[in-house]
Design a protein that fits this description.
It is built from 8 helices and no strands. With 153 residues, the protein is an all-alpha fold. The longest helix has 21 residues. It starts with 13 loop residues before the first helix and ends with a helix.
């Protein structure tokens, strides 16, 4: 099971997901096949399909979120952080994107930035325990590193 919980489903039709260079049904099919593969634990195969869907429809938040989850699950943490960052840039109040970005940044070793995004996610959704647990973990890592360097701030 991945550390990043599943995101929301997109209920838009194939026409709404379409792009001039791709058939609407193709993009829609790629997205749903990618979600299915991701749900079945085949993140690498999902990432390939979702990258194609994202190329056809780069502004789709749902496709980008699914791609970010697949990237995270395949340990492409920098790529996942980039994908989640694009969502955060477009919608700063997206708690799930803030959470995913925080987790991905933590995995790349940027715990300070991770703590900021996880704190935002936890503030937006204090009812989600996994948000606050991830924040506690990153803050504990920061404290341990600061103690090791003699910086007690």
């Amino acid at each position: 099971m991945s550390e990043v919980p599943p995101g929301g489903e997109d209920s838009r039709s194939g026409e709404e997901l379409g792009h001039a260079d791709a058939q609407p049904d193709d993009t829609y099919t790629l997205y749903h096949r990618g979600l299915d593969l991701l749900g079945r634990g085949s993140a690498a195969a999902a990432a390939q399909l979702l990258e194609r869907a994202c190329a056809a429809e780069p502004q789709s938040r749902s496709i980008l979120e699914a791609l970010a989850r697949a990237q995270f699950d395949t340990r492409q943490y920098a790529a996942a952080a980039g994908s989640f960052q694009r969502i955060v840039d477009a919608s700063p109040s997206d708690d799930y994107a803030q959470f995913g970005l925080g987790l991905a940044l933590a995995r790349t070793g940027d715990h300070s930035a991770a703590a900021e995004h996880l704190a935002l996610a936890a503030a937006m959704r204090p009812d989600l325990r996994h948000y606050t647990e991830a924040l506690r973990s990153v803050r504990a890592t920061l404290r341990a590193r600061n103690l090791g360097t003699g910086d007690n701030t």
